[in-house]
Protein backbone atom coordinates (compact mmCIF):
# COMPACT_ATOMS: atom_id res chain seq x y z
CA UNK A 1 0.00 0.00 0.00
CA UNK A 2 1.45 3.36 -1.01
CA UNK A 3 1.76 6.11 1.58
CA UNK A 4 -0.62 8.98 1.07
CA UNK A 5 1.52 12.09 0.51
CA UNK A 6 -1.23 14.23 2.02
CA UNK A 7 -0.58 12.59 5.39
CA UNK A 8 3.12 13.46 5.35
CA UNK A 9 4.44 16.68 6.92
CA UNK A 10 5.30 19.12 4.11
CA UNK A 11 9.00 19.61 4.95
CA UNK A 12 10.63 22.48 3.13
CA UNK A 13 7.65 23.83 1.19
CA UNK A 14 7.40 27.33 2.66
CA UNK A 15 7.46 29.24 5.93
CA UNK A 16 5.27 27.55 8.55
CA UNK A 17 3.90 25.18 5.91
CA UNK A 18 3.77 22.50 8.59
CA UNK A 19 1.45 24.69 10.67
CA UNK A 20 -0.80 25.72 7.78
CA UNK A 21 -1.28 22.08 6.78
CA UNK A 22 -1.22 20.60 10.27
CA UNK A 23 -3.31 17.47 10.82
CA UNK A 24 -4.74 16.11 14.03
CA UNK A 25 -3.13 12.73 13.30
CA UNK A 26 0.31 14.27 13.81
CA UNK A 27 -0.43 15.64 17.30
CA UNK A 28 0.11 12.44 19.28
CA UNK A 29 3.58 11.91 17.81
CA UNK A 30 4.57 15.54 18.34
CA UNK A 31 3.28 15.48 21.90
CA UNK A 32 5.16 12.28 22.76
CA UNK A 33 8.36 13.54 21.16
CA UNK A 34 8.08 16.89 22.95
CA UNK A 35 7.81 15.21 26.34
CA UNK A 36 10.63 12.74 25.69
CA UNK A 37 13.03 15.30 24.22
CA UNK A 38 12.39 17.80 27.03
CA UNK A 39 13.35 15.17 29.60
CA UNK A 40 16.52 14.39 27.64
CA UNK A 41 17.44 18.04 27.06
CA UNK A 42 17.54 18.99 30.74
CA UNK A 43 20.74 17.17 31.79
CA UNK A 44 22.34 17.69 28.36
CA UNK A 45 21.76 21.44 28.35
CA UNK A 46 23.09 21.79 31.88
CA UNK A 47 26.17 19.75 30.96
CA UNK A 48 26.91 21.79 27.84
CA UNK A 49 26.49 25.06 29.73
CA UNK A 50 29.09 23.80 32.21
CA UNK A 51 31.33 22.95 29.25
CA UNK A 52 30.90 26.51 27.95
CA UNK A 53 32.05 27.90 31.30
CA UNK A 54 28.57 29.22 32.11
CA UNK A 55 26.12 28.61 34.98
CA UNK A 56 24.20 25.39 34.31
CA UNK A 57 20.83 27.16 34.25
CA UNK A 58 21.98 29.08 31.17
CA UNK A 59 21.79 25.81 29.25
CA UNK A 60 18.13 25.52 30.19
CA UNK A 61 17.52 29.13 29.17
CA UNK A 62 19.06 28.33 25.78
CA UNK A 63 16.60 25.45 25.32
CA UNK A 64 13.35 27.44 25.17
CA UNK A 65 13.21 30.32 22.67
CA UNK A 66 15.66 28.66 20.20
CA UNK A 67 13.22 25.77 19.69
CA UNK A 68 10.42 28.23 19.00
CA UNK A 69 12.55 30.41 16.72
CA UNK A 70 13.62 27.43 14.65
CA UNK A 71 10.01 26.23 14.38
CA UNK A 72 9.04 29.58 12.87
CA UNK A 73 11.69 29.69 10.14
CA UNK A 74 13.44 26.31 9.78
CA UNK A 75 12.65 23.76 7.10
CA UNK A 76 13.43 20.44 8.83
CA UNK A 77 10.53 18.57 10.39
CA UNK A 78 12.76 16.63 12.81
CA UNK A 79 15.80 18.76 13.72
CA UNK A 80 16.02 19.69 17.39
CA UNK A 81 18.17 22.72 18.16
CA UNK A 82 19.77 23.74 21.43
CA UNK A 83 23.08 23.69 23.27
CA UNK A 84 25.50 21.07 21.94
CA UNK A 85 29.03 20.02 22.85
CA UNK A 86 30.75 21.71 19.90
CA UNK A 87 29.14 25.12 20.41
CA UNK A 88 29.78 24.82 24.14
CA UNK A 89 33.47 24.20 23.56
CA UNK A 90 33.71 26.93 20.91
CA UNK A 91 32.05 29.41 23.25
CA UNK A 92 34.50 28.58 26.05
CA UNK A 93 37.56 28.62 23.79
CA UNK A 94 36.66 31.75 21.83
CA UNK A 95 35.75 33.76 24.92
CA UNK A 96 38.66 32.62 27.10
CA UNK A 97 41.00 35.42 25.88
CA UNK A 98 38.30 38.06 26.43
CA UNK A 99 36.94 37.37 29.92
CA UNK A 100 37.23 35.11 32.94
CA UNK A 101 34.79 32.20 32.92
CA UNK A 102 32.10 32.46 35.57
CA UNK A 103 32.05 36.26 35.65
CA UNK A 104 29.14 38.47 34.62
CA UNK A 105 31.28 39.92 31.83
CA UNK A 106 31.89 36.42 30.46
CA UNK A 107 28.16 35.68 30.50
CA UNK A 108 27.34 38.88 28.67
CA UNK A 109 29.96 38.14 26.01
CA UNK A 110 28.46 34.65 25.54
CA UNK A 111 25.03 36.23 25.08
CA UNK A 112 26.40 38.72 22.56
CA UNK A 113 28.25 35.96 20.75
CA UNK A 114 24.92 34.17 20.27
CA UNK A 115 23.31 37.45 19.20
CA UNK A 116 25.95 38.26 16.60
CA UNK A 117 25.87 34.69 15.30
CA UNK A 118 22.07 34.86 15.03
CA UNK A 119 22.18 38.14 13.13
CA UNK A 120 24.82 36.84 10.73
CA UNK A 121 22.95 33.61 10.04
CA UNK A 122 19.61 35.36 9.57
CA UNK A 123 21.05 37.96 7.18
CA UNK A 124 22.78 35.22 5.17
CA UNK A 125 19.44 33.46 4.97
CA UNK A 126 17.70 36.59 3.70
CA UNK A 127 20.45 36.91 1.07
CA UNK A 128 19.93 33.21 0.13
CA UNK A 129 23.57 32.30 0.74
CA UNK A 130 22.94 28.74 1.85
CA UNK A 131 25.60 27.55 -0.58
CA UNK A 132 28.21 28.77 1.93
CA UNK A 133 27.84 25.39 3.60
CA UNK A 134 29.97 24.02 0.78
CA UNK A 135 33.03 26.00 1.88
CA UNK A 136 33.79 23.56 4.69
CA UNK A 137 34.55 20.15 3.24
CA UNK A 138 33.73 16.91 5.03
CA UNK A 139 37.39 16.25 5.97
CA UNK A 140 37.63 19.72 7.56
CA UNK A 141 34.40 19.28 9.52
CA UNK A 142 35.28 15.73 10.55
CA UNK A 143 38.79 16.74 11.60
CA UNK A 144 37.51 19.77 13.48
CA UNK A 145 34.89 17.78 15.38
CA UNK A 146 37.37 15.01 16.21
CA UNK A 147 39.88 17.53 17.54
CA UNK A 148 37.14 19.36 19.43
CA UNK A 149 35.93 16.09 20.97
CA UNK A 150 39.42 15.39 22.32
CA UNK A 151 39.59 18.89 23.80
CA UNK A 152 36.16 18.37 25.40
CA UNK A 153 37.26 15.07 26.93
CA UNK A 154 40.39 16.67 28.37
CA UNK A 155 38.34 19.55 29.77
CA UNK A 156 36.06 17.17 31.69
CA UNK A 157 38.76 15.00 33.27
CA UNK A 158 39.13 17.30 36.30
CA UNK A 159 35.43 16.87 37.07
CA UNK A 160 35.73 13.09 36.66
CA UNK A 161 38.75 12.92 38.99
CA UNK A 162 37.46 15.46 41.46
CA UNK A 163 40.32 17.87 40.77
CA UNK A 164 40.05 21.62 40.71
CA UNK A 165 42.39 21.76 37.69
CA UNK A 166 43.93 19.14 35.43
CA UNK A 167 47.68 18.49 36.00
CA UNK A 168 49.64 19.49 32.93
CA UNK A 169 52.67 17.19 33.31
CA UNK A 170 53.20 13.53 34.36
CA UNK A 171 55.19 14.69 37.38
CA UNK A 172 52.39 16.98 38.47
CA UNK A 173 49.91 14.13 37.95
CA UNK A 174 51.93 11.90 40.33
CA UNK A 175 52.32 14.62 42.91
CA UNK A 176 48.61 15.39 42.81
CA UNK A 177 47.27 11.84 42.74
CA UNK A 178 46.54 11.97 46.47
CA UNK A 179 43.98 14.81 46.23
CA UNK A 180 41.93 12.91 43.64
CA UNK A 181 38.48 12.43 45.13
CA UNK A 182 37.93 8.66 45.06
CA UNK A 183 34.21 9.03 45.78
CA UNK A 184 33.77 11.34 42.80
CA UNK A 185 35.83 9.01 40.61
CA UNK A 186 33.74 6.02 41.73
CA UNK A 187 30.48 7.80 40.90
CA UNK A 188 31.86 8.82 37.54
CA UNK A 189 33.09 5.35 36.59
CA UNK A 190 29.79 3.77 37.64
CA UNK A 191 27.88 6.28 35.52
CA UNK A 192 30.19 5.70 32.56
CA UNK A 193 29.72 1.93 32.74
CA UNK A 194 25.94 2.29 32.83
CA UNK A 195 25.83 4.73 29.92
CA UNK A 196 28.17 2.57 27.82
CA UNK A 197 26.03 -0.48 28.58
CA UNK A 198 22.91 1.47 27.62
CA UNK A 199 24.50 2.57 24.36
CA UNK A 200 25.76 -0.87 23.32
CA UNK A 201 23.57 -3.59 24.83
CA UNK A 202 20.52 -2.29 26.74
CA UNK A 203 18.29 -2.06 23.68
CA UNK A 204 18.95 -5.67 22.71
CA UNK A 205 18.31 -6.91 26.24
CA UNK A 206 15.04 -4.98 26.43
CA UNK A 207 13.91 -6.43 23.11
CA UNK A 208 14.72 -9.95 24.26
CA UNK A 209 12.63 -9.22 27.35
CA UNK A 210 9.66 -8.58 25.07
CA UNK A 211 9.75 -4.82 24.55
CA UNK A 212 9.03 -3.47 21.06
CA UNK A 213 12.20 -2.48 19.15
CA UNK A 214 11.24 1.19 18.86
CA UNK A 215 10.48 1.51 22.55
CA UNK A 216 13.64 -0.38 23.50
CA UNK A 217 15.85 1.91 21.42
CA UNK A 218 14.14 4.99 22.84
CA UNK A 219 14.56 3.86 26.44
CA UNK A 220 18.22 3.09 25.83
CA UNK A 221 18.77 6.61 24.52
CA UNK A 222 17.13 8.05 27.63
CA UNK A 223 19.57 6.24 29.93
CA UNK A 224 21.15 9.53 31.16
CA UNK A 225 17.84 10.38 32.82
CA UNK A 226 18.19 7.38 35.11
CA UNK A 227 21.74 8.44 36.02
CA UNK A 228 20.48 11.92 36.90
CA UNK A 229 17.61 10.55 39.00
CA UNK A 230 19.82 8.16 40.97
CA UNK A 231 22.48 10.84 41.48
CA UNK A 232 19.91 13.31 42.82
CA UNK A 233 18.47 10.69 45.18
CA UNK A 234 21.91 9.62 46.40
CA UNK A 235 23.03 13.19 46.99
CA UNK A 236 19.92 13.95 49.02
CA UNK A 237 19.90 10.65 50.92
CA UNK A 238 23.60 10.36 51.76
CA UNK A 239 24.63 14.02 51.89
CA UNK A 240 27.23 13.53 49.16
CA UNK A 241 27.83 17.27 48.97
CA UNK A 242 29.03 17.27 52.58
CA UNK A 243 31.22 14.24 51.79
CA UNK A 244 33.17 16.32 49.29
CA UNK A 245 31.28 15.64 46.04
CA UNK A 246 30.98 18.92 44.08
CA UNK A 247 27.38 19.64 43.05
CA UNK A 248 25.72 22.16 40.78
CA UNK A 249 24.74 24.38 43.70
CA UNK A 250 21.90 26.85 44.03
CA UNK A 251 19.80 26.85 40.89
CA UNK A 252 17.38 29.76 40.52
CA UNK A 253 13.73 29.00 39.89
CA UNK A 254 11.79 30.84 37.24
CA UNK A 255 12.46 32.13 33.77
CA UNK A 256 15.60 34.18 33.10
CA UNK A 257 15.61 37.74 34.39
CA UNK A 258 17.52 39.04 31.42
CA UNK A 259 19.50 42.25 31.79
CA UNK A 260 20.91 43.74 28.62
CA UNK A 261 24.49 44.96 28.94
CA UNK A 262 26.15 46.32 25.82
CA UNK A 263 29.86 45.49 25.71
CA UNK A 264 32.43 48.00 24.59
CA UNK A 265 33.42 48.56 20.99
CA UNK A 266 36.68 46.63 21.46
CA UNK A 267 34.78 43.64 22.84
CA UNK A 268 32.30 43.72 19.96
CA UNK A 269 35.16 43.87 17.49
CA UNK A 270 36.82 40.91 19.21
CA UNK A 271 33.57 38.92 18.97
CA UNK A 272 33.19 39.29 15.19
CA UNK A 273 35.61 36.54 14.12
CA UNK A 274 34.36 34.10 16.82
CA UNK A 275 30.80 34.79 15.67
CA UNK A 276 31.74 34.03 12.06
CA UNK A 277 33.43 30.76 13.04
CA UNK A 278 30.66 29.55 15.31
CA UNK A 279 28.04 30.50 12.70
CA UNK A 280 29.76 28.65 9.90
CA UNK A 281 30.47 25.50 11.89
CA UNK A 282 27.00 25.31 13.45
CA UNK A 283 25.32 25.90 10.08
CA UNK A 284 27.30 23.20 8.28
CA UNK A 285 26.73 20.70 11.08
CA UNK A 286 23.01 21.49 11.33
CA UNK A 287 22.42 21.33 7.58
CA UNK A 288 24.24 18.00 7.32
CA UNK A 289 22.16 16.58 10.15
CA UNK A 290 18.90 18.02 8.78
CA UNK A 291 19.59 16.49 5.36
CA UNK A 292 20.27 13.10 6.93
CA UNK A 293 17.03 13.22 8.93
CA UNK A 294 15.04 14.41 5.91
CA UNK A 295 16.24 11.46 3.81
CA UNK A 296 14.93 9.07 6.46
CA UNK A 297 11.42 10.51 5.99
CA UNK A 298 11.68 11.20 2.24
CA UNK A 299 11.43 14.93 2.86
CA UNK A 300 13.57 17.84 1.76
CA UNK A 301 15.15 20.85 3.41
CA UNK A 302 15.97 24.35 2.20
CA UNK A 303 19.50 25.50 3.08
CA UNK A 304 18.48 29.17 2.98
CA UNK A 305 15.61 28.54 5.39
CA UNK A 306 18.00 26.60 7.62
CA UNK A 307 20.07 29.77 7.84
CA UNK A 308 16.97 31.69 8.86
CA UNK A 309 15.93 29.01 11.35
CA UNK A 310 19.35 28.81 13.01
CA UNK A 311 19.60 32.60 12.99
CA UNK A 312 16.25 32.89 14.75
CA UNK A 313 17.29 30.15 17.20
CA UNK A 314 20.47 32.00 18.17
CA UNK A 315 18.64 35.30 18.42
CA UNK A 316 16.19 33.56 20.74
CA UNK A 317 19.06 32.16 22.80
CA UNK A 318 20.56 35.62 23.24
CA UNK A 319 17.20 37.18 24.15
CA UNK A 320 16.68 34.55 26.86
CA UNK A 321 20.15 34.88 28.34
CA UNK A 322 21.55 31.74 26.69
CA UNK A 323 24.54 30.95 24.49
CA UNK A 324 25.04 29.84 20.88
CA UNK A 325 23.00 26.83 19.73
CA UNK A 326 22.69 24.56 16.71
CA UNK A 327 21.13 21.25 15.69
CA UNK A 328 21.96 18.41 18.08
CA UNK A 329 22.50 14.88 16.80
CA UNK A 330 21.37 12.85 19.82
CA UNK A 331 18.32 14.96 20.63
CA UNK A 332 17.28 15.04 16.96
CA UNK A 333 17.54 11.27 16.67
CA UNK A 334 15.49 10.84 19.86
CA UNK A 335 13.03 13.41 18.50
CA UNK A 336 12.42 11.46 15.32
CA UNK A 337 12.33 8.08 17.05
CA UNK A 338 9.82 9.37 19.62
CA UNK A 339 7.44 10.13 16.76
CA UNK A 340 7.99 13.82 15.96
CA UNK A 341 6.13 14.84 12.80
CA UNK A 342 6.63 18.60 12.80
CA UNK A 343 8.51 21.34 14.70
CA UNK A 344 5.55 21.49 17.08
CA UNK A 345 7.42 18.78 19.02
CA UNK A 346 10.14 21.34 19.72
CA UNK A 347 7.61 23.97 20.80
CA UNK A 348 6.08 21.45 23.23
CA UNK A 349 9.54 20.60 24.59
CA UNK A 350 10.25 24.31 25.09
CA UNK A 351 6.99 24.73 27.02
CA UNK A 352 7.80 21.77 29.28
CA UNK A 353 11.31 23.10 30.01
CA UNK A 354 9.84 26.51 30.84
CA UNK A 355 7.41 24.78 33.20
CA UNK A 356 10.26 22.92 34.89
CA UNK A 357 12.19 26.18 35.33
CA UNK A 358 9.13 27.69 36.98
CA UNK A 359 8.64 24.76 39.35
CA UNK A 360 11.21 22.09 40.20
CA UNK A 361 14.42 23.56 38.74
CA UNK A 362 16.06 24.06 42.20
CA UNK A 363 16.05 20.28 42.71
CA UNK A 364 18.78 19.98 40.07
CA UNK A 365 21.08 22.04 42.27
CA UNK A 366 21.89 18.78 44.12
CA UNK A 367 23.18 17.13 40.94
CA UNK A 368 26.89 16.15 41.17
CA UNK A 369 29.07 17.87 38.59
CA UNK A 370 30.71 14.54 37.81
CA UNK A 371 27.39 13.28 36.40
CA UNK A 372 27.23 16.19 33.96
CA UNK A 373 30.87 15.53 33.03
CA UNK A 374 30.11 11.86 32.36
CA UNK A 375 27.13 12.78 30.16
CA UNK A 376 29.46 15.00 28.13
CA UNK A 377 32.22 12.37 27.94
CA UNK A 378 29.93 9.60 26.71
CA UNK A 379 28.20 11.94 24.26
CA UNK A 380 31.36 13.28 22.61
CA UNK A 381 33.57 10.17 22.53
CA UNK A 382 31.85 8.82 19.37
CA UNK A 383 32.61 12.16 17.69
CA UNK A 384 36.27 11.12 17.39
CA UNK A 385 35.78 9.85 13.86
CA UNK A 386 38.57 7.34 13.24
CA UNK A 387 36.51 5.55 10.57
CA UNK A 388 36.36 8.69 8.42
CA UNK A 389 40.11 9.14 8.81
CA UNK A 390 40.72 5.52 7.80
CA UNK A 391 38.43 5.77 4.75
CA UNK A 392 39.85 9.10 3.65
CA UNK A 393 43.42 7.88 4.05
CA UNK A 394 42.74 4.84 1.89
CA UNK A 395 40.66 6.58 -0.77
CA UNK A 396 42.31 10.00 -1.08
CA UNK A 397 45.52 10.64 0.82
CA UNK A 398 45.15 14.42 0.43
CA UNK A 399 41.75 14.35 2.17
CA UNK A 400 43.17 12.11 4.87
CA UNK A 401 45.99 14.58 5.48
CA UNK A 402 43.49 17.45 5.59
CA UNK A 403 41.33 15.64 8.16
CA UNK A 404 44.27 14.66 10.37
CA UNK A 405 45.91 18.09 10.10
CA UNK A 406 42.67 19.86 11.02
CA UNK A 407 42.26 17.69 14.12
CA UNK A 408 45.87 18.27 15.18
CA UNK A 409 45.51 21.96 14.36
CA UNK A 410 42.53 22.25 16.69
CA UNK A 411 44.54 20.60 19.49
CA UNK A 412 47.72 22.63 18.93
CA UNK A 413 46.56 25.93 17.43
CA UNK A 414 43.08 26.19 18.89
CA UNK A 415 39.69 26.27 17.20
CA UNK A 416 40.35 29.26 14.92
CA UNK A 417 43.76 27.98 13.87
CA UNK A 418 42.48 24.45 13.26
CA UNK A 419 39.60 25.60 11.04
CA UNK A 420 41.77 28.03 9.07
CA UNK A 421 44.42 25.34 8.61
CA UNK A 422 41.82 22.84 7.39
CA UNK A 423 40.25 25.28 4.93
CA UNK A 424 43.69 26.27 3.58
CA UNK A 425 44.67 22.64 3.11
CA UNK A 426 41.39 21.94 1.28
CA UNK A 427 42.03 24.83 -1.09
CA UNK A 428 45.65 23.83 -1.63
CA UNK A 429 44.69 20.21 -2.33
CA UNK A 430 42.09 21.30 -4.89
CA UNK A 431 44.58 23.59 -6.62
CA UNK A 432 47.16 20.79 -6.58
CA UNK A 433 44.69 18.40 -8.22
CA UNK A 434 43.63 21.01 -10.74
CA UNK A 435 47.26 21.76 -11.60
CA UNK A 436 47.82 18.11 -12.60
CA UNK A 437 45.13 17.65 -15.27
CA UNK A 438 44.56 14.41 -17.13
CA UNK A 439 44.97 14.91 -20.87
CA UNK A 440 44.32 11.73 -22.87
CA UNK A 441 44.99 10.82 -26.49
CA UNK A 442 41.83 8.98 -27.54
CA UNK A 443 40.77 6.66 -30.34
CA UNK A 444 37.65 4.79 -31.37
CA UNK A 445 36.83 1.45 -29.77
CA UNK A 446 36.50 -0.85 -32.83
CA UNK A 447 32.97 -1.24 -34.08
CA UNK A 448 31.48 1.33 -31.70
CA UNK A 449 30.91 5.06 -31.29
CA UNK A 450 32.88 5.11 -28.03
CA UNK A 451 36.27 6.79 -27.63
CA UNK A 452 38.78 5.82 -24.99
CA UNK A 453 42.40 6.52 -24.03
CA UNK A 454 45.04 4.90 -26.22
CA UNK A 455 46.98 3.98 -23.08
CA UNK A 456 44.14 2.03 -21.50
CA UNK A 457 42.28 0.45 -24.43
CA UNK A 458 42.85 -1.11 -27.84
CA UNK A 459 41.48 1.60 -30.11
CA UNK A 460 41.55 2.77 -33.74
CA UNK A 461 43.13 6.09 -34.67
CA UNK A 462 43.43 8.16 -37.83
CA UNK A 463 47.10 8.74 -38.74
CA UNK A 464 46.66 12.42 -39.47
CA UNK A 465 44.11 13.14 -36.68
CA UNK A 466 45.19 13.72 -33.08
CA UNK A 467 42.27 13.64 -30.66
CA UNK A 468 42.99 15.00 -27.18
CA UNK A 469 40.49 14.91 -24.30
CA UNK A 470 41.09 17.43 -21.52
CA UNK A 471 39.59 16.14 -18.27
CA UNK A 472 39.77 19.32 -16.20
CA UNK A 473 38.76 22.96 -16.32
CA UNK A 474 41.47 25.02 -17.98
CA UNK A 475 42.74 27.79 -15.71
CA UNK A 476 45.89 29.56 -14.59
CA UNK A 477 47.13 26.75 -12.35
CA UNK A 478 47.10 24.05 -15.04
CA UNK A 479 47.46 25.90 -18.34
CA UNK A 480 51.21 25.20 -18.52
CA UNK A 481 50.68 21.48 -17.79
CA UNK A 482 48.02 21.23 -20.52
CA UNK A 483 50.30 23.04 -22.95
CA UNK A 484 53.10 20.58 -22.23
CA UNK A 485 50.73 17.62 -22.64
CA UNK A 486 49.61 18.90 -26.06
CA UNK A 487 53.17 19.45 -27.26
CA UNK A 488 54.21 16.01 -25.98
CA UNK A 489 51.33 14.47 -27.93
CA UNK A 490 52.55 16.13 -31.11
CA UNK A 491 56.01 14.71 -30.52
CA UNK A 492 54.46 11.26 -30.37
CA UNK A 493 52.34 11.83 -33.51
CA UNK A 494 54.46 14.04 -35.82
CA UNK A 495 52.25 13.37 -38.91
CA UNK A 496 49.26 15.12 -37.36
CA UNK A 497 47.40 17.51 -39.65
CA UNK A 498 44.13 17.83 -37.71
CA UNK A 499 43.98 18.30 -33.94
CA UNK A 500 40.67 17.65 -32.17
CA UNK A 501 40.25 19.04 -28.66
CA UNK A 502 37.47 17.17 -26.83
CA UNK A 503 36.10 19.47 -24.12
CA UNK A 504 33.34 17.29 -22.69
CA UNK A 505 34.83 17.57 -19.18
CA UNK A 506 35.61 21.29 -19.36
CA UNK A 507 33.15 23.68 -17.73
CA UNK A 508 35.27 26.81 -17.64
CA UNK A 509 38.32 28.32 -19.35
CA UNK A 510 39.82 31.39 -17.68
CA UNK A 511 41.78 34.15 -19.40
CA UNK A 512 45.17 32.51 -18.83
CA UNK A 513 43.92 29.23 -20.26
CA UNK A 514 42.40 30.98 -23.28
CA UNK A 515 45.66 32.79 -24.01
CA UNK A 516 47.54 29.49 -23.81
CA UNK A 517 45.12 27.79 -26.23
CA UNK A 518 45.30 30.72 -28.62
CA UNK A 519 49.10 30.66 -28.67
CA UNK A 520 49.16 26.91 -29.29
CA UNK A 521 46.59 27.22 -32.07
CA UNK A 522 48.60 30.02 -33.69
CA UNK A 523 51.79 27.96 -33.50
CA UNK A 524 50.08 24.90 -34.99
CA UNK A 525 48.67 26.99 -37.82
CA UNK A 526 52.24 27.85 -38.80
CA UNK A 527 52.84 24.07 -39.13
CA UNK A 528 49.67 23.72 -41.25
CA UNK A 529 47.79 21.96 -38.44
CA UNK A 530 44.14 22.89 -38.02
CA UNK A 531 42.47 22.82 -34.61
CA UNK A 532 38.89 21.62 -34.10
CA UNK A 533 36.66 21.29 -31.05
CA UNK A 534 34.16 18.64 -30.03
CA UNK A 535 31.53 18.23 -27.31
CA UNK A 536 31.72 21.81 -26.04
CA UNK A 537 29.12 22.42 -23.34
CA UNK A 538 26.55 25.15 -23.86
CA UNK A 539 27.69 27.49 -21.06
CA UNK A 540 31.30 27.18 -22.20
CA UNK A 541 30.29 27.83 -25.81
CA UNK A 542 28.48 30.96 -24.63
CA UNK A 543 31.64 32.06 -22.86
CA UNK A 544 33.78 31.49 -25.95
CA UNK A 545 31.28 32.83 -28.49
CA UNK A 546 32.82 36.28 -28.91
CA UNK A 547 36.48 35.33 -28.55
CA UNK A 548 38.97 35.58 -31.40
CA UNK A 549 40.16 32.06 -30.59
CA UNK A 550 36.81 30.52 -31.50
CA UNK A 551 35.80 32.84 -34.32
CA UNK A 552 39.17 33.18 -36.11
CA UNK A 553 41.45 30.30 -35.10
CA UNK A 554 39.19 27.26 -34.67
CA UNK A 555 38.33 25.52 -37.92
CA UNK A 556 35.16 23.70 -36.85
CA UNK A 557 33.18 22.76 -33.75
CA UNK A 558 31.64 19.27 -33.80
CA UNK A 559 28.72 18.18 -31.64
CA UNK A 560 30.32 14.78 -30.95
CA UNK A 561 33.67 13.03 -31.19
CA UNK A 562 32.10 10.37 -33.41
CA UNK A 563 31.02 12.94 -36.02
CA UNK A 564 34.39 14.67 -35.79
CA UNK A 565 36.27 11.41 -36.44
CA UNK A 566 34.08 10.54 -39.41
CA UNK A 567 34.53 13.99 -40.89
CA UNK A 568 38.22 14.45 -40.24
CA UNK A 569 39.03 10.85 -41.12
CA UNK A 570 37.70 11.40 -44.61
CA UNK A 571 39.52 14.69 -44.95
CA UNK A 572 42.78 14.22 -46.88
CA UNK A 573 44.91 17.34 -47.04
CA UNK A 574 48.22 17.46 -48.80
CA UNK A 575 51.12 18.15 -46.44
CA UNK A 576 52.58 21.62 -46.56
CA UNK A 577 55.41 21.94 -49.10
CA UNK A 578 58.82 22.56 -47.65
CA UNK A 579 60.29 25.96 -48.38
CA UNK A 580 63.81 25.81 -49.74
UniProtKB/TrEMBL annotation:
Q: Name one Pfam family in it.
A: STAS
Q: Which UniProt keywords apply?
A: Membrane, Transmembrane, Transmembrane helix
Report the InterPro entries cross-referenced here.
SLC26A/SulP_dom, SLC26A/SulP_fam, STAS_dom, STAS_dom_sf
The listed locations are: Membrane
**Domain STAS as annotated: residue spans:** 455-568
**Chain segments annotated as transmembrane:** 25-42, 48-73, 80-100, 106-127, 139-160, 180-198, 210-234, 271-294, 306-330, 342-360, 367-384, 404-428
GO:BP terms for this protein?
transmembrane transport
Stored SUPFAM superfamilies: SpoIIaa-like (SSF52091)
Its GO CC terms are: membrane
Q: How does it sit in the membrane?
A: Multi-pass membrane protein
Protein's name according to its UniProt entry: STAS domain-containing protein
Originating species: marine sediment metagenome
